[in-house]
Design brief:
The protein is mostly beta strands. The chain is built from no helices and 11 strands. The strands form 2 sheets. Strands 2, 4, 5, 6, 9, 10 and 11 form a 7-stranded mixed sheet that branches. A hairpin with a 4-residue loop joins strand 7 (about 70-75) and strand 8 (about 80-85).
């Protein structure tokens, strides 16, 4: 089973940017889709976006709240996926998780139970 580890979280002012990384070990990222989730205080875990494998490439955005601001990418040679977050807002505060599912295509929905491997999460706080 894959092991995932997120990094890159921290405190950022509104309007700022962060890039989260999801390092994969114990197997190849190539055969997996990677999704990003967020859990805000007192709320359920929310699916944000998912990136397909490099074949076919592309991604699905699950949450309208991040459309146009968050971008997923991956570097299979480094076994790492990324979430670039721009124009951050206070409501983006939460713990961010990456999750892997062995497939070439992301699912159209983002049920956490569909993902077999999870990172431990990284805290993102957007505040002035």
């Amino acid at each position: 089973q894959l092991q995932l580890m997120e990094s890159g979280g921290g405190l950022v002012q509104p309007g700022g940017s962060l890039r989260l990384s999801c390092a994969v070990s114990g197997g190849s990222l190539y055969f997996n889709t990677i999704a990003w989730f967020r859990q805000a205080p007192g709320k359920e875990r929310e699916g944000l976006s998912c990136i397909h494998s490099n074949n076919p490439g592309g991604n699905i955005v699950y949450s309208d709240s991040v459309k146009g601001r968050f971008t997923t990418s991956r570097d299979d040679a480094k076994n790492t996926a990324y979430l670039q977050m721009d124009t951050l807002k206070p409501e983006d505060t939460g713990i961010y998780y990456c999750a892997a599912r062995k497939a070439f295509y992301c699912l159209q929905s983002s049920y956490p139970n569909d993902f077999s491997s999870w990172g431990q999460g990284t805290q993102v706080t957007v505040s002035s």
